[in-house]
Amino acid sequence: MAAPAPAPAPKHPATPRGHHHHPARHLHVARCFPDPPPPASKPATNPLLALLSAVPDWADAAQERRLRDRRPLYDHATWREHRSSRRHLRHFLTSLSSRVILSLAPPVSAFTAFAAAIATYNTLLPDHALTASSLPYQLTAPALALLLVFRTEASYARFDEGRKAWMRVLAGAADLAGMVMHPSPPPAAAADDEPLRRALLNYILAFPVALKCHILCDSDVKTDLEGLLAEDDLNVVLASKHRPRCIIEFISQSLQMLDLDQQKRGIMESKLSCFLEGIGVCEQLIGIPIPVSYTRLTSRFLVLWHLTLPVILWAECKWIVVPATFISAASLFCIEEVGVLIEEPFPMLALDALCKQLHDGIKDVIAVQSSVHTRLVGKAKGRGGSRRTDNGWPSSKREEAKID
């Protein structure tokens, strides 16, 4: 019996002449890392541990709620209040509402209670009192000061880097939006591209908002972008895993479709580099903290310092070790806490207010653009009949007097 003939190979549909598939459709990115394993189920919590962790959990929840508050930009009235001579009293009276102080409640209260326990033990058993020389503290105090200084300076450097990255992103968006609002083709050609220009302007304004939602936790990107993007464009952005880069793709392809001269298109496309640089800097600051060895060393140093502080001070201070431990723990842990907070710079920045400021500025420019253009054209036509010399100065004293 003869073997059956092999099935013919499937024929690919012919591509119509003049139509070519976009090369991006044939690109495939290799998979570099496997997906992370699913998280293991959490063991049952111990009631005693749950009771002991109630205060830290409450302090952490209060701090996270305060971190989600929108920060405003300063104006003249805010600066006047900021430098007021009554600021010290105001800051002291609002201490209990400070997220830094609320986050310090667990460690400070624990060390103060430990100091009270040491003082009680030394009072009840004076023959077996826990005392030691203060010489080790005098030798190690400079090391602790250097650790705290490095921690805060490194954190502020990250805060400043994040602030500068956002200023470059906003400046690039304003510059690119200005070039879109002032088209270089003739008015007739610019009128044909008006819907695409309007959509491109919205894409540019949407990029800082998408970047803000990309780097801030608990951000509602759909609500923030609903007023800027059309529904179909918004669905594409929401379906993307990296929404800022998706909006950059909208901007790049819109620039390719506009009727622009090659030089201006190249300048406008070069402005996208500041967007990509901003994404890189922001993701680097979010993903790479200060080396955790310094953070752990500072934390352990502070803990050991305050565990032994009542023993060191008992011989000279007696029961004063309790308020002394409280003041020392509140001061030093507060400095370390500020360094930890500003290590992640973006919750500290007024990103919502900055995006709104950019949007309001572009909206105001669009509102006054036509009226300013009409007035300048009228002035140019009014000067068309005046007699002027080749160097541009009036040719008669009467015209010079009109200018004066």
UniProtKB/TrEMBL annotation:
Gene Ontology CC annotations of this record: thylakoid membrane
Keywords: Ion transport, Membrane, Transmembrane, Transmembrane helix, Transport
Database matches in InterPro entries: VCCN1/2, YneE/VCCN1/2-like
Keyword Transmembrane annotated: yes
Topological type in the membrane: Multi-pass membrane protein
GO molecular function: voltage-gated chloride channel activity
Biased composition (Basic residues): 17-29, 377-386
Keyword Protein biosynthesis appears in the UniProt entry: no
Domain of life: Eukaryota
Stretch list, region Disordered: 1-45, 377-404
Pro residues biased stretches: 1-13
Subcellular localization: Membrane
Entry's Gene Ontology BP terms: photosynthesis, light reaction; regulation of photosynthesis, light reaction
Name of the protein this chain belongs to: Uncharacterized protein
Native source species: Setaria italica (Foxtail millet)
Lineage of origin: Eukaryota, Viridiplantae, Streptophyta, Embryophyta, Tracheophyta
The encoding gene: LOC101767866
